[in-house]
Amino acid sequence: MAFLELLMQIRHPVLDYLFLGISNIGNPVILIGLIAWVYINVDKNKGCGMAFAMFLTGCLSQGAKLIFRIPRPWILESDTSVFAPVPMALSTATGYSFPSVHMQATTAFTEAAFLYTRKKRIRFLSVAFLLLLAFSRMYLGVHTPTDILGAFAMTAFFTAVTVFGWNKAYKTHRSDEVFVFITFGFAAVLLFLGISLVLNGTVEFALAKDSYKIAGASLGYAAAFLLERFSVRFSTEGTPLVKFVRFLILLAGFLLLNTVTKPFLDTTPAGVVIRYILIVFWMFGFGPWCCMKTGLLKKASRL
């Protein structure tokens, strides 16, 4: 807390907006959108590796939140004259504090990007953004250094394992069964943990809600992966304009689903899970299938 109190002394409105913007870029939803761009327009197999790393470490991170149940920094330090978060950042601080999900998602994305490229510029930007995101979450007062370091250590290890495993296995159908089984398993365990803790009164629904989101998203991705692997099997080739248009279609579908389903599916555990299954299944499965049917995506000659 002493470090956060020190950062509180250097706050300025300009810095508040700057670091809030950086923090918003590290939102898991934004990063999943970037992975969808890689998946549909750059390299499908690299996109799969990044997605598996994102969803598996997301399940681990949310599971850790529910197990440790550590409150946010301003709750730990109730004297607001000593410490308080940046008010604008409160909407980005849902659920428990440890470990940081923004840090988990950013670590998974930037580490995968770092491992998948030899370009020094991309590697430099990946490391720079990861450090800025880590600092932004502490500057905003929504996470402690322990939250940040814990998320980084856990995610860095499991992202490396996931990417390495996917790179070795993606050319064989045996990898489909393994990765889908692991993804379904992680999501099922997280759902069981989250629902059990809410039902027995240990955790409030609002504090467990993010766990339902990532569990649903993981299930949606596993289903979308199977659809693509055994039916769609698209190629990422295309002109820059075609690539832009098909990504706009994915984005439009996401915005529509997000808007339409939120009012009546966002208030119960089952509803939240279904909502995120639909959203992610669209982004990585049904959306590419629609692009295939309209000619914006072509059939791959091989896996």
Estimated helix fraction: over 70%
Shape summary = globular
**Structural Rg:** 19 Å
Strand order of the largest sheet: 1-2
Give the helix tally.
12
Low-confidence parts? none
Query: What is the H-and-E element order?
Result: HHHHHHHHHHEHHE
Total number of β-strand segments? 2
**What share of residues are in beta strands?**
under 5%
Query: First CA to last CA: what distance?
Result: 50 Å
Main pleated sheet: 2 strands, antiparallel
Derived structural class: mainly alpha
What structural keywords apply?
12 helices, two-stranded antiparallel sheet, 76% helix, 303 residues, globular, mainly alpha
Q: What is this structure's SSE topology?
A:
Layout lengths: L1 H7 L4 H13 L2 H15 L1 H25 L4 H4 L24 H16 L3 H20 L5 H25 L3 H27 L5 H28 L1 E2 L4 H26 L3 H25 L4 E2 L4
Antiparallel strand pairs: 1-2
Task: Write structural notes for this entry.
- The chain has twelve helices and two strands.
- It has 303 residues and is mainly α.
- Strands 1-2 form a two-stranded antiparallel ribbon.
- Helix 6 runs antiparallel to helix 7 (120-139).
- The radius of gyration is 19 Å and the shape is globular.
